[in-house]
TrEMBL record:
Descriptive protein name: Major facilitator superfamily (MFS) profile domain-containing protein
GO cellular component: membrane
Alphabetic keyword roster: Membrane, Transmembrane, Transmembrane helix, Transport
Gene Ontology molecular functions: carbohydrate:proton symporter activity
Subcellular location, record wording: Membrane
InterPro entries xref list: MFS_dom, MFS_sugar_transport-like, MFS_Sugar_Transporters, MFS_trans_sf, Sugar/inositol_transpt, Sugar_transporter_CS
Transmembrane annotation, as ranges: 20-43, 152-170, 177-200, 212-237
Similarity annotation: Belongs to the major facilitator superfamily. Sugar transporter (TC 2.A.1.1) family.
Topological category with respect to the lipid bilayer: Multi-pass membrane protein
Length: 250
């Protein structure tokens, strides 16, 4: 959202008839990338990976730093350390993980579920809307900075509705949220398509009044629904259904 606001400010400042319209937003995006690059040097290594490399002391140090405020004897640190040792012992007894195991009849169902959750997240229509929303709003009669501001609101909605999902999805459950999200996104997409088919015209014609307001409302509702359901679940669901032995390759 910070990048979007930076871009918005540059558009408002430079207008739409200068190269700064796209050069400045691109340049601004370097700063978060630089911060991320520097911060990566301070991120601890995965304790499971360290354990897999037989670097147990370092794995314990990471667990203590992350979960025990440096206390190696903290209950949660020792519990996770013991769990990692147990899982590593089981993995060693089963031998090295082969790529063929991913398509084994015992695993193919969960692997395909994890893959297709991501596929349908991309095909849900939200990404297409993000790309073409400026043109949709242009058809709705918005022009200039008003069109830009209206289209940038979707990014704010995206962030605002993703945050509560972190707290409520554990109560709702993954499957009900996916089903409900798909159902309501279908309604918003069909509603938008129906309104545009009935009242819309090719740009620069477009439509206005209550029709334009309806299209804008439906697009915002789609982004909100997607951000609360499919967007966050597509990242946590696969990691929860994969067998821990297969996660590295899956």
């Amino acid at each position: 959202m910070g990048i979007q606001w930076q871009s918005q400010r540059r558009f408002l400042r430079f207008g739409t008839k200068t190269e700064a319209v796209f050069r400045v937003p691109w340049a601004v995006q370097m700063f978060p990338a630089i911060v991320l690059f520097v911060a990566l040097f301070f991120i601890p290594e995965s304790p499971r990976w360290l354990a897999s490399q037989d670097r147990w002391e370092e794995a314990l140090d990471v667990l203590a730093s992350v979960h025990g405020q440096g206390n190696h004897q903290a209950t949660i640190v020792q519990a996770q350390y013991a769990e990692i040792r147990e899982s590593m012992a089981v993995a060693e007894s089963q031998g090295e993980v082969k790529w063929a195991e991913l398509i084994h009849p015992d695993n193919i169902h969960r692997i395909s579920n994890g893959i297709f959750v991501h596929i349908w997240t991309q095909l849900s229509g939200n990404n297409a809307l993000l790309y073409y929303i400026v043109y949709i709003f242009q058809m709705a009669g918005l022009t200039g900075n008003v069109k830009l501001i209206a289209s940038s609101v979707q990014y704010i909605i995206n962030v605002v509705f993703t945050l509560p999902a972190i707290f409520f999805l554990d109560r709702i459950g993954r499957r009900p949220a996916l089903i409900g999200g798909a159902f309501f996104m279908m309604i918003w997409l069909y509603s938008t398509a129906g309104v545009m088919a009935q009242y819309g015209h090719y740009v620069p014609g477009g439509f206005d009044g209550s029709t334009a307001a309806a299209v804008i409302a439906f697009t915002y509702l789609l982004v909100a629904t997607y951000s609360f359901t499919w967007a966050p679940i597509s990242w946590c669901y696969p990691s929860e259904i994969y067998h821990i032995r297969l996660r590295g390759k899956a």
